[in-house]
Amino acid sequence: MSSSQAMGVYKLKVAAGKDLTAGTYNNIFIVLVGVNGESGKHQLPRQWNNYLPGSVAVIDINVEKDLGELLLVRVSMEPYLNFPLDAWFCQYVSVTCPSGQINQFPFYQWISKFMTVEIPEGKGIILSENIHLAIEQQRKVELEQTRENHKWRVYAKGVPHCIDVADDEVQHLPPNDQFSLLKESSFGFNTLTIELETKLRGFTCKTDSWQNIQDIKKVSSLHRSQISDLVCEIWKEDQFFGSQYLNGLNPILIKKCFRIPKKFPVNEQMVAPSVGASTNLEKELQNGHIFLADYKILDKVPANNSINGNQQYLAAPMCLLWKNQDQLVPIAIQLSQTPGDDAPIFLPSDSEFDWLLAKIWVRNSDLQVHEIDTHLLRTHLLPEVFSVATIRQLPMAHPVYKLLMPHLRFTLETNTLLRKQVIGPKGFFDQAFAVGNGGIPILMKKAMDGLTYSSLCLPDNIESRGMETIPNYFYRDDGMKIWLAMESFVSNIVNYYYSSDEMVSQDPELQAWVAEIFKEGFLEYKTSEIPSSLESIGSLIKYLTMVIFTCSAQHAAVNSGQFDFYSWMPNGPTSMKCPPPTAKGVTTMPDILKALPDVNTTATGIATVWLLSKEPQDRLRSSSLQKPLGDYTNVRFTEKTPQHLIKEFQDKLAKISKSTQERNMAVRLPYPYLDPTCIENSVSV
Ligand code: FE2
Asked: What distance lies between CA 578 and its chain's CA centroid?
């Protein structure tokens, strides 16, 4: 073949990111690498427009020889005159070969230094013996770099490890982990805090107790939602109290009770007025109608002692509930793990204020466990572990990387901000929550005992708690639809790339990833039963479904309703100023007001839950940053089959959304948190 015949024109499209800061003034060079060799180094044209946000530079490259199948493009950023370094976000490079064949090179990352990166062709590739040397080399170099930038750090002894960045140095996160390179959303996070502080200013200096329960409305109604208004109306109802175990913020704590525990000596006589003459406790236990919420995890956790200079109090209560027809209602509460004369069992037949205060104490305990275990540990710290392990162990051409990245977006920055502003010393929890900065690591470490693989997999979680058939459990019903849709999507993707169990067990990158999560996230606790390796296609499907579900739906279920349920403070007091009552018949309304948080503590608590549950579009102030579940706008999978599978998954989610919305029209208290259109694709708040 003569050189003139072999010479060809490769047509390139290079797309910059859509964010305002995504362009660069620096020089960009590009080299094509194919199985037959490399092109020369070509500079992209210096027309400024080409590097504006969202712009696509189109250039032709003449190559003297046929490069054969294209493997990767090498992109480098170099200084232009004395212009300063100016980070550039590259979405993708697309190359049309002389043959007409089109190759996509997805990147979706910042190039933030004068450096060279190699972007592999978009096909998902699993490391094997017949992989091209250039690709093997690219993967090695890529992982060396990401491991250099993403190191582990011990956040607190006995809890999952986190990214090695100081909590007040969010700007030191690698650029690809920052909300649009810090230009937009963390700004939003801070602006929001300032805005809230301004609104709450009148309240934040008042360090005394509320004088009247209705006055609390003044602060809780600074922001309102349909559900928060309803909660304020019905918060004293036993039915509403019970329903929160199913469709509130902590829907994974309650368990079916087969036998009354010794430490909670409830007897027939106590519950007779609740269950009526037609049945009794023993029968209802046998019928599977009795449930238990046990907060033993809070036992001996030290309470915050620095809210307005005062010691706060924590209880470790137990609450027995009864399924009455379609409703779940509380029938007995003991505020201590140790029975005795100073730990009376409170009953609905007690005086109004005895019963109300007992329920308020349970709500306070539920809030601490919800925030630290259910929310922060399980749906913030774990997703961070998944995130760091994925970045460190899986190269961008790995199909599991492509599958997971959309579900790990911004989690590292979110948690870095949380560690400082929310749970750090003098953070919101220290200012307003019974479990302050000192108690958080202690409670979290205790919560690690319950952090099992089965508790993270929704079907197993529901089954192990005996909650399969209880009616009106929307968290379970909506969650299962999403879990199954996710599992089917993941299964199709996994089966497309892995043709045998051996391919799974012999994928060294995948195995290193699973092992790292076991080590850094679950601290090699064998009791967690979390796999340390994966031996089959089936086990990989389950594992990946668990990761995606945790980072999206599970976080939404325990995060999005925080303002709805807690902004009416008596339904979710962040702290209690008096010890739990030890006798019956003495509590008055003034006693309850005295035990509830002070005015300023209430304001800070409401600010915290508002900040944490704020809808992303408001918080981030830019619609391009909001990504609902199933959004894969960044085209990392370039083959037709996975693209088709994504579409199928999105169609399923749309159907689920429709049925959830229809159901919500028909109920008094809607459950919108697991409507797929309301679920964020990743933990970013
Ligand atoms: Fe959250």
From this structure: 33
Neighbouring C-beta atoms of residue 329, cutoff 10 Å: 19
Does 144 reside within a domain? no
What is the pLDDT confidence band of residue 395, given thresholds at 50, 70 and 90?
Answer: very high
H or E segment to which residue 4 belongs:
helix 3-6
- Centroid of ligand 1 to alpha carbon of 613 (angstroms): 7
pLDDT per position as a tens digit, 499-530 = 999 999 999 999 999 999 999 999 999 999 99
Q: How far is the CA of 555 from the centre of ligand 1 (A)?
A: 6
Q: What's phi and psi for 35, nearest 5 deg?
A: -65, -25
Residue 335 Cα, ligand 1 centroid: separation in angstroms? 28
Q: What's the rounded Cα separation, in Å, for the pair 551 and 555?
A: 6
Q: Kind of pairing, strands 37-38 and 88-96?
A: unpaired
What pairing do the DSSP bridges indicate for beta strands 88-96 and 8-16?
antiparallel
Model pLDDT, residue 188: 46
Distance 300 CA to ligand 1 centre (A): 26
419 falls within a domain: no
pLDDT given at position 595:
97
For residue 44, the domain's CATH number is 2.60.60.20
Tell whether 110 is covered by a domain: yes
Q: How many angstroms separate the alpha carbon of residue 563 from the centre of ligand 1?
A: 12
**Cβ neighbours of residue 183 closer than 8 Å, sequence gap 6 or more:** 19, 20, 21
Q: 3-class secondary structure for 46-66?
A: CCHHHHCCCCEEEEEEEECCC
Q: Give a yes or no: residue 53 inside a domain.
A: yes
**Arithmetic mean of pLDDT, 355-372:** 98
- Report CA(124)–ligand 1 centroid distance (Å): 31
Encoded tokens for 479: 């969650």
CA of 681 to the centre of ligand 1 (A): 12
Q: Which of 287-296, 527-536, 613-622 has the lowest mean pLDDT?
A: 613-622
Residue 616 has pLDDT above 50, yes or no: no
CB proximity list for 163: less than 8 A, separation 6 or greater: 150, 151, 152, 153, 173, 177, 384, 387, 388, 412, 415, 416
Please spell the DSSP secondary structure of 207-235, one letter per residue: -S--SSGGGHHHHHTTS--HHHHHHHHHT
Among 373, 354, 369, smallest CA distance to 294 is for 369
Distance 273 CA to ligand 1 centre (A): 40
Residues with CB under 5 A from ligand 1 (ion): 559
In contact, 317 and 334? CB cutoff 8 Å: yes
Percentage of residues of the chain with pLDDT beyond 70: 91
Torsion of CA 31, 33, 38, 39, to 10 degrees: -40
Q: How far is the CA of 14 from the centre of ligand 1 (A)?
A: 35
Write out the residue range of the structural domain in which residue 56 sits: 3-121
